[in-house]
Fold each of these.
Amino acid sequence: MKKLFFSFLIILIISSIDAYSQVVWEEITTPNHKFFSVAVANNGEIFLGSSSANDTGGVYKSDNGGESWEFIGLEDRSIYSLSFNHEENLLAGVGGGIFLYNIEQGTWEKVFQPSGNTLAIEPGFNNTIFGGSSGVNRSSDDGYTWEKIENIPGLENCGVYGLSARSEDTIYLAATDHMAGGGVYRSIDGGDTWQYIGLEGHYAKAISLNSNGDIYSGCTGQHYYGWGGVYKLTSGSDTWDTLSYWPMIRAMVITQEDVIFCGFWTTSQAKGGVMHSEDDGETWVIDTIGMGNHGVTDLVMDNTERLYALAGYTNINLYRTSLPVSLEHQLELKPHIRTYCVPNPFSFRAMIYFGKPSNSSADLHLNIYSIDGKKMVTMALSRNEVVQEKILIERNNLTKGMYSYTISGTSFYCVGKFIIN
């Protein structure tokens, strides 16, 4: 399986050398805890929910992009999900409860005590919010009071891991019963009643919709066969299409441009990454540059369309995309800057050429990554190199294989690849 994964990874990276949407990750330093959940407010504040199993639990907050962190409460509680209500106050799903954090006052209030762990919280329309635990819970007043939706056939023993609201009336959920499977359910009356719509026996963990109303679900396996993968139900159809039989999908985000991003792991949660598709799931590109080969357990997007991912198993790290994943947002930040390496492949040394920066600042950095996304080299560029728009690189301790590189600075970013033979 490991050999298959790396072969697939090589093929995907080679096929995407000229793609505009190559994704590069940067690691954000976090407290040394195991985190289950991440949320990013519209003002850029980052919130992390940690585990209490071998740790302190609770919620951590950064208001400076991850440079420093503050513990804000819920000590000794595992935080399985984080989201915001329509007032931008924070909702935290824990074992046997939902808490609301008033950001202005800095205080927590327990607002609901459902059965089971609250695994997902999803804002709907008109101050409605849905929570997933062992069944579905709903708030009609922006998260201050809650009710459990009773008597949903098939969900009695399921954990609800994913929720997505299409409209005021139409909501979807992804459910898992590790003893018997799971699947996808839909409500067309605002959550009052729910109907099973497919993926029987699948461990459905993520659900999302594109602009056409097509439904995508990510699974971590099947009760009978063991496969995970990505599945699609086209709007107006009742038949699910299989887009990928593997890997195991735990999180999913679809951008305004209908690019699908999935956080996955392979044979174990220790190995994996993020993959994306720009053609409705027909083909996929693996995005591990800067992240490495670590399984992703949570994936969210902020209001500038930058992605945040929690990756790892024993040690959980937080990563953020260096640029927005939306082409529209990228073009707002910078012109399209191209780069290339000559010769390519090379054995000992080569020259990297890049587009002209907006000024002659020497504040640019070159980072080189291995094929599995690990950072191998980082160096500041001299003023002379910036003015000449070229960098001499040497093989040194790099072994044979394919590498990715980025050149970045204020309002400047480009990415390329080279091969050492």
Note: Residues 334-420 form a domain with the Immunoglobulin-like fold (CATH 2.60.40.3080).
Amino acid sequence: MRSRGSAEFDASKRRLLNENAALRARLDEAEETLRAIRHGEVDALVVSGPDGEQVYTLESAEQPYRVLIEQMQEGAVTLSSNGVVLYCNLRFAQMLKTPHEKILASSVSDFVAPAHSKEFRDLLKQGNKESARAEITLITGDNKLLPTYLTLSPLPAEVEGGICMIVTDLTEQESMRRNQATIEALNARLRRAMTETHHRVKNSLQIMSALVEMHVLDNAVSVPTATIRNLNLQVRALAAVHDILTQQSKRDAECKTISSMQLLEQLLQMLQEIAAPRIITYSIADTPLLSQHAIAIALIVNELVMNCLKHGRGAVEVSFRTHCGEAELEIVDCGEGFSENFDPKAQTGTGMALASNLVSWDLQGAISFRNRTDGIGTRVLVTFPLAPTSTPMSGH
């Protein structure tokens, strides 16, 4: 028979072995918990305390960076060495207007515009070795072009064959570039328009200077009031041309032509105020005239109509026609007509000499002075070639 001491020893041994096994189990559980925490496999712990069980959530060191990447306004993508998407943030999916799950495991080259395919392949090849960047146009899920700026860099050595790609949306920058180009083009047009305006004003002032000089030469002592009035009409005629050109420049800064109908109607209505009770009738074909031609025509019409009002009788008829690249300006009255020995060069005054010179020098045309075929009144005909840009608009 076993002694009492031996039995107690065996019982104590068994108790110690059980306690040891329990401690080992608890140790294994603690080590497994630590391993799981260390490898990011644990999201929370439940701890019992005086106030009962409490839940403590765990965050890894990577968590703040994950939040940052998901919240950034640029697309963030992890690529394999051959361009397969291993990871992308929400912003990249939004930029491509494509569901997140359809982007993962797909080749990023599938989203590159065909025109930039080769450039992207070269960029990807360089991005496997070193940091590389380029402007690449992508295609969104709704088949629209998305201008982007891509930056590719190799990931650390422990992520073998991985590439980090940052995608910046250049849509706003492209819009700013287009706006800048438009502004520069408008500024260039404005500069050209200002140059053209200065040139026209200079020419008009030179014409007025020449007119004043001509009248001074004809009237050495004093200038008659009638001559001053005529100069005033010539200034108003020039002002009418500039007024129309100014109105047109508001619509088109580079406009270099003026409507013959708009010009002559405005000018003849102004002369009608002076002619009353005499009547001025007109028939005008609408044709674009170069601004320098318009100035010459305005002064010519002013001189010829005023001459009819001064020396003729009845209505004054003005007509402007175009045919086969040539324009005809005709002015007739109901006066006594020209005498048989009428010589325009010898007998016309300062105003008529001005008209003749403008026809010859500015219009490169010809002017003829005749009597009407019915023998009642005069007929002055001005013909000149239209500029290549001057094509008939419509007949009236």
Note: Residues 171-218 form the longest helix (48 residues).
Amino acid sequence: MKKIMLVLMALSLAVTSATAKWGDRDERIRVTEHIKITKPYTTQVKVGEDCYKDTVEVNVPCNKQDTNSIGIDTIIGATLGIAVGNQIGKGKGRDAAKVIGGFLGATIANDQRQGIGNCKSYETINICNPRYEYRTVNKIVGWKNCVYIDGQRYCKQTTKKVKWLRVRKAITVY
């Protein structure tokens, strides 16, 4: 078991030393300069409204008018109701069916004639249409964070400001 542990430790040490180059080191360096990275966008801005009056057609419930008059349609409805009632029952039941059928036929025909449903009317309304103006605005899309190392300027782009940048320097020995 100890031999396996020693082999694993030696293998991990060999992998670690193989990946790291001689003289590589990571440093954290404080950022000294922030530069906005902007991109132009076009936006719509509401400036005002153009309003005007217009007359439109609307559906409204019809008013019942002339509820006491009897027309030909009412008489035809009553006659049809009596004819249908005549087909139902025998004796006094048939007579009752005729009376009820005549009454229902007359009522239905009279209601149809008086316009139960929707009628057309006209209404004046205000209509306002917005007016838009297009403007170009510069929107911040990121930051260029810069540092100076040994007199050399290095920059990295990020989506937000950062205080520190991690820099990897390689030292070459001749």
Note: Strands lie at 24-30, 33-61, 118-149, 152-158, 164-170.
Amino acid sequence: MQKNILILVSTIIAFIAIYGIMQNDRFYRNTLGRIIAPYEQNENWEQKQPMTTYKKFSSQELVQWDAVHYYQISRYGYDTEKAGGDYIFAFFPLFPALIKILHLSPLAACILNFILFSISILMLCKLFSHSKKQFLDLSIYLTFPLLVVFLIPQNEALYMFVLTLAIYGFMKQKYGLFFAGMFLAALTRPSFVFLLTAFLCTEFFFMVKEKKILQTVKNTLLRILPLILGTVCVSLIHWYYHPSGVFIKFIGIQKNWGNHFELPHFLRDWSYEGFSINIGVLCLLFMPLLVLFCQIFLQQFSRKQNIAIFTSKNQQHYLFIFSIIYILGHTFFILFFSGGGLQGLFRFCLCNPFFIILLFSAFKYIEKIPLNYKIFSFATFSVFAVFILAVTPFSTYWHFTDCGLLLMIFAVGLWLFQDFYSRKWYKGCLYATLLFNIVWATFLFNTFITGRTLFL
């Protein structure tokens, strides 16, 4: 545990130090300035102005993009006149309430977010990682290009924390804690549809093999009840401020954002930074998970097998299947309800405890796979990701903003070949990737506070 805390503390110290150093114009120009070619985007996705040294900022300048709406709600509630439109109902009340109750400045909110993230990841290490592998598992997770999401004043860290509480309650069979965590999750983000669907699909997965229909119905009702009540609570809060129109306002608002079923036809994003990471998620997480789930599904329901590989009586088995379904569901939704717009994909798929559960527990299912097969599969998916990024019209030339994909490739490679952890070359690659990811996080953080592009 001490080593885990040390690496989290070291990571944030390194982040602060690197960001501070990059505020020096001379140092920046002789290091990152030589390789970075960022831009400000206009509506035609053309380059405009190059980025200069990292910006020195005040606490108030952290209020960018969605953070503006959270602070708006914390001050005025869901006042559509103050907000300038009813889009404000798309943002959920728990994080703004926390800001108001604790009188959090934007900088204080960032600090709290990292603390909540750290507590969550330590709890998940304790629950799902072997005691001898906790430091390695945590180090690998920190190499994925997601750190910046937990360092800005938005609700991802809070969402991860309350879901982690629910998972802890589930693992320890403490329904009260599970109920509270899921209820608070429904107050944090519009997670009702995805979590409820994942519960329904997971229960069906086990019911078909185990034939326990009444037990399945009971479990399903108990697990979705806090989500239903939490969503009703959000709707009542919204109704209090605007008692007209539909009761569940946030669904109607999101429909107005163009979320409707259509086949993906033009892969795109709000930024090149986010696009590169999202291509990595599609090719290196979604596609392998889809193959893995199909294989598990066929094995689970094979008539030649009398004993199921996974059983609902085992909490880790249940959460493993649930996590796969949750991430696949989010990806399918983004692919088929935005016409190819990938914005938010990596945030929804990587910045939640279910990805961590898979990261910590899935390796034992593949560690016996022959090395040459793992190398071939990894190389195939990686080359395919690079090919997609290179030929997609949205991003046809290479620059520093594509490093998110490289980090995804490095991180997945470190996870896939972690049985070489005792080798010096592996440790060198691990720590070099972690350092590179911290530099990437400072770059994204500077992009965020300057309001250049929305990479989330």
Note: The chain has two domains: 65-104+155-257, 258-456.
